[in-house]
Automatic annotation (TrEMBL):
<dbReference type="Pfam" id="PF04525">
    <property type="entry name" value="LOR"/>
</dbReference>
<dbReference type="InterPro" id="IPR025659">
    <property type="entry name" value="Tubby-like_C"/>
</dbReference>
<dbReference type="InterPro" id="IPR038595">
    <property type="entry name" value="LOR_sf"/>
</dbReference>
<protein>
    <submittedName>
        <fullName>LURP-one-related family protein</fullName>
    </submittedName>
</protein>
<dbReference type="InterPro" id="IPR007612">
    <property type="entry name" value="LOR"/>
</dbReference>
<comment type="similarity">
    <text>Belongs to the LOR family.</text>
</comment>
Amino acid sequence: MKMLFKQRFFSWLDSYDIYGEDGRTLYTVKGKMAWGHCLEVYDASGAHIATLKEEVLTWMPRFRMYLGGVHVGDIKKEFTFFKPSFVLECNGWKVAGNFLEWDYEITEDNGSAIAWVSKQFFNFTDTYSIEVANQEHALMSLMIVLAIDAAKCSGGNA
């Protein structure tokens, strides 16, 4: 399953639309006024299904992920000099990115691929392509991409 994650051009707060391969809207993400990033995810029918909240007063960006109001995991950026590093505390998954922070792979502990993420260039807004091996992992993969994008913004290197 492939998804296109596209930030809206005119928006005071973070706002994204996520499209399927056929061009239909799968998810909508809306930023809320809060201390730190707070993003709410809605399904195609407009039902709130997930929330991503940045913890404030931390040295490096850290985000808590909620599905249906239940805390399901955290993702935090680690301090490194050259290669970006994120620690994912969720489902036994791992995330690794390349040197320029544009491409990511989400895997299980055993190395099985969950999703591949790549940033598309030459767009006015942040646009990512997300390819998910199993459709049931689409929402969690999206939450991870949202957290990484927000962490890059918090770190001043978006």
